[in-house]
Amino acid sequence: MNLLCLPMNLKKECMNNAINWIIRLNSSLMDQLSISNSTNSDSQIIASSGVFQIELLKHAGESDYSQLIEISKSLEKDYGEKAVLTKTTIQKYFNKAGSLPFIARYREEIIGYIIGVPLEVLSHEPWARMDENFGKGNTLYTYAFVIQSEYKGNGYAKMLKRVFLSWAGKRDNVNHITGHVANGISARFTGDIRIVNRIEDWQGTGKAFEYYRRDLSKEKSPLKNNPPLISRT
Fold first, then answer.
1. Helix (H, G, I), strand (E, B) or coil at 13
2. How confident is the model at residue 12, as a pLDDT?
3. 131-168 per-position pLDDT tens digit
4. Domain that holds residue 16
5. What's CA 217's distance to the chain center, in Å?
6. What's 228's DSSP letter?
7. CB 143, CB 176: distance < 8 Å
8. Same domain, 70 and 18
9. Residues 195, 215: contact at Cβ < 8 Å?
10. Rounded distance, CA 68 to CA 85, Å?
């Protein structure tokens, strides 16, 4: 169509239609790109030593779901079936704004993870609502912390936890880290730790657990100078 031969009002209408079509096309392409990107994880390497590295998981993509779920199965015996990840819980907790998830890799394979979630995300849990800091937005709950058994004893778990605590402490609004562990475990932790309460039968496991609180405001970060971030997509 030759726009030069059209009246002015039709020219404007044709131009507007063309612009709207381009906008819709760009929007569709962006949506397709977003869907494509969601299948891949987006992370940043925080620390590395040889073939081992720790990454801040900015977005958990579907390509890593199977590894995360498989690793989480080792938690079921001690923490109950709720500790086993699903696609839904990965999306809910790992990709939740305010969460702090780290993964450990060995030769490019995920061998463990630790994740802190805002206490308020667990509002469906009575024990969370009873916490004195619930609603203040100043507490991260350690939803899970696991390293595959064959990689334990190499210091990987300790390094992963140190990085997690260091980064949590750098968040201006985070003053506390909480979590559930088997009775007596929190006594091994360093720092300002207080047992808030005890549960005789945690998640139907028949095992006694304690709910602890770590006060970050009184601690010095163990890793003040983090290495430069390296993007990994």
1. helix
2. 54
3. 999 999 999 999 999 999 999 999 999 999 999 999 99
4. 1-37
5. 22
6. P
7. no
8. no
9. no
10. 7
Residue 206's identity, in one-letter code, is G
Residues 109 and 30 in one domain: no
Do 231 and 193 contact (CB within 8 A), yes or no? no
Of 135, 160, 214, give the one whose Cα is nearest residue 49.
160
User: Residues 163, 145: contact at Cβ < 8 Å?
Assistant: no
In a shared domain, residues 18 and 51: no
Are the CB atoms for 226 and 46 separated by under 8 Å?
A: yes
pLDDT digits (tens, 9 = 90+) for 48-107: 999 999 999 999 999 999 999 999 999 998 898 999 999 999 999 999 999 999 999 999
Does 44 lie in the same domain as 6? no
Residue 147 pairs with which residues in a beta bridge? 112
Strands (DSSP E) found in 94-187: 100-106, 109-118, 139-147, 176-182
In a shared domain, residues 113 and 47: yes
Contact 105, 67 (CB under 8 A): no
pTM of the model: 0.76
> With bands split at pLDDT 50, 70 and 90, how would you rate the model's confidence at 20?
low
Tokens describing residue 9: 């009002």
Q: Phi and psi of 19, rounded to 5°?
A: -65, -45
Of 207, 219, 206, 125, the residue nearest 174 (C-alpha): 219
**What DSSP assignment string belongs to 32-73?**
HHHHHHTTS-EEEEEEEETTEEEEEEEE--GGGHHHHHHHHG
